[in-house]
Structure formats: structure tokens, C-alpha cells
Design brief:
By secondary structure, the chain is mainly alpha-helical. The chain has 15 helices and 12 strands.
Length: about 475
């Protein structure tokens, strides 16, 4: 694109020659003023023209036909791929497994939340929830490949998790898990988040189901009992409590993410123990959640976030867990306010609803396949994980061919997530490519790796690997 016609450097020479011929002996200083002005205008026009041309070129590249896009093009560490094969998924599971083992602290056994790939460093802090999520993922991987190496890492990590539980009976946080541990000072953070205890319960249940270890069971019970103390009269959850200057502080905000995490924890605890107090706690959250869905629809927000796919997905997963809890009740007369069938219809209805929010734009590989309103690998990996549970639930409920919609959506977002996974082709320039290999960096702007991004990504891949056919799954 040109702004000033075909104006060029050649035109400057003509202007200069004509000007000097007319003004050769008079007002010489005006010559320099005019020439400086002309030079500035021409230079500026060339710069603008160049920038606009480059932008047009980029737009043309984004809009070129899909079959002309070159696979494995790297833009700002994003590895653009227009095809996905099952072998690529198997490779990513292997690489990400090794990455997760590297983020476990050798001294304490806990997991870091962040690895800063651009300067090859960890924060001096270990997190209970990310350690629990990592163990949960390693258990899935062990079930998939029977890699005996993983058991040692799991043992050390579970020891760290149990050490993070507050066992001081007089404390308001008795039974809860400290949010984090500072490796430089050796101090535990006096912050207790309901999501941390909830997701740790998920992992403890998986450990107990495999080992029948009573210490693990007792830890889960203590944590679940603390969660009951954090439930408000309206059924919602107080998100956290934190000790500041010797006093306990909390927040009056409500989070569907935290409500959902606790609903899943109560539902799973009821299935494991048969204790009705957990079912009652679950019912209070479920009723509040279902009321909101009835009034506002499946796409929800809260006091922390505008309506978004991640909060909405927690509605789906938590109600799915609640359905399984209702399905496990021996007493057929216990139905709850809404009933099991209504819960099932809500789970499947909201799941199909959220499929419509997945971006379908094959001309732009950097966004195609992710969820509108979710920009990170953590959020989209989580969506993938939730849909894998929904997919099997749909099949169990005789959903027929409609269930394949979830499978297709997962293949699409898996391709997107693969682009944001560090590997040989897109880690050039990092100070330690070997450390970053297999990690999913946050998004196009932020290149750090968050542990939950990797965990969610791998969970979905392992859940679905046997459902995917050999060979090419997707070609754009």
C-alpha cells in the first residue's frame, strides 16, 4: 500500500536539482530547510508504507488456505501445526511426564507452581495443590504405562502433601492444608484455600483406593470435615481463610470454581465413606448451582470473574460428580431437591452448550480449537480434561453418535495445546531447553510453565488415548 503515490528516492534527486537551478545564488539557507522537510516527509511515508505492507502480508498469511500452511512453523515460540496424529499425542505424554518429574523438589518432594523458562528458574515456593494435581496425573500415567519409576516420586510427593495439613486441633484451620511452603525460610503459608483441600482430597482418594492406607483416608476425612466448616448457610463456600497479624481473615466473595471444587470433593467423599454429612453438604452446593443455571443458563461467572468457560466447566464437572454420588445412594427415596435425572440432563445439556463456544477458525492456527474466553493452556487443558469425563459419561448414558462431538472438540483443543508445548523446534533461545521440554507454556505472551497446565493437558490425553485411532486425527 502506498500513501503518496509512486513517490521514491529518485523524486528527491529531481526536486533537489530543480530547486538548485532556480535558487542557485539566493537564500541558500532556505534550500537546506526545504530539503530537510522533504527528506523527513519522504522517509516517514516510506516507513508507514513499509509497516502497512508488512501488516498486509501478515494478514494474507493468516488468511491463506489451510492446505498451504506449512506444518511446524514457529512464531514467538508457538509451534503452528495443521495436523495431529496419535503418535504425536503419545510423544507428548512421554515428554510431559518427564517434565513433571523435574518440577518436583528433590529435597522436600513438593511441586513448584511455576518454572520460568526464559531465565531457567523456579520460585522458592512449593504448593500443596499443584503437588496434589501432579500426583493425580502421575497416577493416571502409571495406570497407562506401568512405569515403576513413578511410584518413588509419588511416595515422596504424598509425604510432602501430608506434612502440609494443619493438625493443630485448636485452630480454625484444623484439617485444612497450607497453601504453600517457602523453601528459603522453611515456613508454611498460613493461608487455607478450599480449592487446595478439595483437589488434595481427590488425590488422597485415588491413593487410598490403590493402597487402603488408613493415614491417607484419615487425612481426607479431616480435610473434608474442615470444608464443612467453611460452608455458608446459603450453601456456597467461603473461598479461604488467612491469618494476618494473629487474626483470621476471609472474603465475602463467591466463586463457582471453588463451589464446584468442593461439590466434587463432598460427592467423592460420600462415595468413598458413605457418610451422609458429605452428601448433605454436596446437596446444598448443588441446589444453589442448579438454581443459578435455571435462572442464568450454563455459562456462568461470579464475584471473581465474568462468565467464562472455566467456571462453567466446573459447574459441569461438579454436577457430574454429584450425579455419581446420587447414583451410589442405597436409599432410592433420597432424591434431593432436583433429582438425579434433572442433574444428568443439566450435565449433558451444559456440556453440549459449551461446545458452541470453541473457536472454529482454521485460517488462524494460533486460536483455532481453543475456547473463546479462555486464553491459557491451563484453562484449555482443563476444558479438555472435563470433556473427557463428559465423553465417557455421554457414552454410558447411551448418547450415541452425539458423544463424538466431545471427541472432535478434544482433538481440536489438543492440537492447539500441542502448539504451546515446548519441544525441540520451539525452545530455541531458551537457556535450558532440556528442562522446558514437555512443558506447556502459559500463552503467546507469557512463556512460563505452570504445573497445572501440564497436569490438565496430560490427564485429558491419557484419558482419551485408547479412544483415538492410529494415524492422522486431524488435518486442517
Amino acid at each position: 500500500m502506498k500513501i503518496f503515490g509512486s513517490f521514491s528516492i529518485y523524486d528527491i534527486n529531481i526536486i533537489e536539482k530543480n530547486f538548485f537551478m532556480k535558487k542557485k545564488n539566493n537564500n541558500w539557507w532556505k534550500v537546506h530547510v526545504v530539503m530537510a522537510t522533504v527528506t523527513f516527509i519522504v522517509t516517514f511515508s516510506l516507513i508507514v508504507s513499509y509497516n502497512l505492507t508488512i501488516n498486509e502480508l501478515k494478514a494474507e498469511i493468516r488468511a491463506e488456505p489451510a492446505d498451504e500452511i506449512t506444518n511446524n512453523e514457529v512464531i514467538n515460540n508457538v509451534l503452528l501445526i495443521n495436523r495431529l496424529e496419535k503418535s504425536m499425542i503419545e510423544e507428548k505424554i512421554a515428554d510431559s511426564t518427564e517434565y513433571l518429574l523435574r518440577v518436583l523438589d528433590e529435597t522436600y518432594g513438593g511441586a513448584h507452581k511455576y518454572y520460568y523458562a526464559t531465565n531457567d528458574s523456579f520460585e522458592e515456593r512449593l504448593h500443596t495443590i499443584y503437588t496434589s494435581s501432579l500426583v493425580y496425573t502421575l497416577l493416571k500415567i502409571y495406570d497407562y504405562n506401568n512405569d515403576e519409576r513413578l511410584l518413588t516420586y509419588i511416595d515422596d510427593a504424598v509425604e510432602f502433601i501430608l506434612s502440609m495439613q494443619n493438625l493443630h486441633t485448636a485452630d480454625k484451620s484444623y484439617g485444612a492444608f497450607h497453601y504453600s511452603f517457602y523453601t528459603d525460610s522453611g515456613n508454611k503459608e498460613d493461608k487455607f484455600v478450599v480449592g487446595t483441600s478439595s483437589k488434595t482430597i481427590y488425590t488422597l482418594i485415588e491413593i487410598y483406593n490403590r493402597t487402603q492406607n488408613e493415614e491417607v483416608l484419615n487425612s481426607a476425612v479431616l480435610a473434608a470435615d474442615w470444608l464443612l466448616t467453611m460452608q455458608k448457610e446459603d450453601g456456597s463456600m467461603t473461598p479461604y481463610i488467612k491469618k494476618l497479624n494473629g487474626e483470621w481473615k476471609d472474603t465475602g466473595k463467591e466463586s463457582h470454581l471453588y463451589n464446584g471444587q468442593v461439590l466434587s470433593a463432598f460427592s467423592r467423599m460420600y462415595k468413598m465413606t458413605g457418610d451422609k454429612k458429605y452428601l448433605n453438604g454436596a446437596e446444598e452446593i448443588a441446589d444453589r448451582t442448579l438454581e443459578k443455571v435455571e435462572m442464568e443458563g450454563c455459562y456462568v461467572g461470579d464475584d471473581y470473574r465474568d462468565p467464562n468457560p472455566v467456571s462453567s466447566s466446573w459447574v459441569i464437572l461438579s454436577l457430574y460428580d454429584y450425579y455419581l454420588a446420587l447414583d451410589a445412594i442405597d436409599d432410592d427415596s433420597y432424591e434431593g431437591k432436583y433429582g438425579k435425572n434433572f442433574v444428568k440432563k443439566t450435565v449433558l445439556g451444559c456440556s453440549f452448550d459449551i461446545l458452541d463456544r470453541q473457536i472454529d477458525d482454521p485460517t488462524n492456527l494460533q486460536v483455532h480449537g481453543r475456547w473463546d474466553g479462555s486464553f491459557s493452556t491451563s484453562g484449555n487443558g482443563w476444558m479438555n480434561e472435563v470433556l473427557s469425563d463428559v465423553y465417557f459419561f455421554c457414552k454410558d448414558q447411551d448418547g450415541g453418535e452425539s458423544c463424538d462431538k466431545f471427541k472432535d472438540a478434544m482433538i481440536g483443543v489438543t492440537r492447539w495445546l500441542t502448539q504451546f508445548t515446548y519441544g525441540e523446534l520451539n525452545s530455541v533461545g531458551l537457556p535450558n531447553p532440556e528442562m522446558a521440554n514437555g512443558g506447556l507454556f502459559w500463552n503467546r505472551e507469557d512463556k512460563y510453565i505452570r504445573t497445572d497446565s501440564v497436569c490438565h493437558g496430560v490427564n485429558a490425553l491419557v484419558n482419551m488415548i485408547d479412544e483415538y485411532e492410529d494415524g492422522v486425527l486431524l488435518k486442517i
